[in-house]
Please model this.
Amino acid sequence: MSEITISRRYAQALDEQAEAAGKSANVAADMSLISEGLAVSRELSGLFDSPVVSREKKADVFRALFSERLDSITLRFLELLVEKRREGLFPEIVKAYQERRDRQSGVVSVSARTALPLTGDDEKRLIGSLEKLTGSNVRLETKIDASILGGIVIRIGDTVYDASVVNQLASLRERLGTGSRN
Amino acid sequence: MATAIRPDEVTAVLKRELGGFEATTDVYEVGTVLQVGDGIARIYGLANVQAGELLEFPRSGVSGMVLNLEEDNVGAVLFGEADKVKEGDEVRRTKRIASINVSEDMLGRVIDPLGRPIDGKGAFTGKTYEMPLERKAPSVIFREPVTEPLQTGIKAIDSMIPVGRGQRELVIGDRQTGKTAVLVDTIINQKSTHQTDKPVYCIYVAIGQKNSTVAQVMRSLEENGAMEYTVIVNAGAAMPAPLQYIAPFAGACIGELFRDTGRHALIIYDDLSKQAVAYRQVSLLLRRPPGREAFPGDVFYLHSRLLERAAKITSSNAVAKNMNDLPACLKDEVKGGGSLTALPVIETQAGDVSAYIPTNVISITDGQIYLESSLFNAGVRPAINVGISVSRVGGNAQIKGMKKVSGTLRLDLAQYRELEAFSKFGSDLDAATQRQLTRGEKLVEVLKQGQFVPMPVEEQIAIIFVAGKGLIDKVPTKKVKQFEKDFIDRIKMRHPNALGSIVSTGAVSDELVETFTKEAKELVELYAAQG
Model:
């Protein structure tokens, strides 16, 4: 089975368990705490990925590290991952978990790439029109990408709205190119 | 006369082209390459993509086609330089089912399976039609029985295994038995149809062949003036397996352009065993479960849906206009009465016709022409084993005259082969048996034919008539070929209208029978006098 499917299943199990215990918010906070930790600490992400460290050791480390900070459900979940040797999939599981939470709460994650930083006003206007377009709440992630030269590229799920200068130049080149052959 | 280009004209054109430059937003759907290798890509995303849809890989400029839709990824085959595609590349949907641009300028040219010229003679300039690679075959109401002959110019085929326009006739045999030679001759023989109002356009699809072989075929066609009405689709042995797999479909698209516009076309798939192997490679890499001989389960459907596209279209324009699954670009140009004849080729291994692919294709087609290496080596060329070759529908398409003279040919040859085995024991044979043996010997000799010399059907009728009637039994076997030539010349010289009447009426009149008999007898006497 592919990693994506597996991650989705673990995420579903975690979410349903948390919901049944009424601790969804805690677990969600825990998950982002761990993934932030992974992003910051190379040692921690190394520990997650390493096949050399034994299962018992990993479980011990997790307990020592997280037992004070995390909800018991999250901690048990980590132990389960270690037991099933799936701790390496943790980043994918976090992603699947967040997607799932977003879907349930009606939030759409949108990424926008611009050549120059957006001003606060622009961003507000953008979010406003995106919310009108999608009909749900929008969580906007912006990124600066000089290679698009100008304009904006917005991605919602698999759909891309491309109003970048580089794309327009490319289509112009194509149009003029075919024109010259006729 | 060309006038000089004025700068303001250029500016105007540029302005017009640049006019739409402001405020355009492209909307497209994307995915990401998860894994790539062996000409296959696994893609994450593309949630709405359709099976068979064309994909673009903008960073590398490669295109691909979706074959597998799975729970969390999409499996696609890559056309072109697969090693340029990298993990993490963006993939775009085109929302177009894989198709090629077919143009009538393709006649006389060599193209690759994506419709691009590969003979260095420049781009196609004429009108193009976007034809989908995978298109459903015309359904029953848009078809007609096969009634018109497709003359191959090969005596053994036209007399005993006749092929009709719209038929699918398999050419099967081991390597080096002259399969391609038979097919090239058939293409060359269509030259004569271009003087009539029902010309036959030809498409030669080469799959997994050496480029040198394809070049040779092209040269033969050029030398015999057959290239001008022929398109060669080449998916050489060095091309990626996905291209070899779609090559026959690309050829079928071109054939359908002629078929659906009321014209006649002949398509040759040389050969489908190599296509099946290419498809097996693609399928196994896509992790589809293997079946017999490791071919995927749908290899039968692969060939049956391809060969179903060969058809004789109803002659009613009104009915043909409503044909199923017509591409939009063809809607206004549809005419009835067209046909697409398919001659698929299968190469057997050591004469084994009970292997998987040969049995499949035998069961799909309307008959088969067997070529045997033992006959080939014995000097019987074309090496057609007429005993086990059949044509299930071609009989209705044979012209009356040919039907009349070839009636007993098959039987005579069968009896000859049976007696031939006996005569090897060398025991004394009675006169009747002797006669049958000589008759068979002469018939076999008459059916031999050189390469690149297809024979018009009226000449075939004349010589098969005299041979079948036993009029040439007295001619020494070695001189039969010479006799054949002399006899045809004699008829042409002394009865200039005789052969023409067969062409115009399609039948052999009693009067003509007399003429043939008389002339043959006279000529045989001349041969006898020579000793």
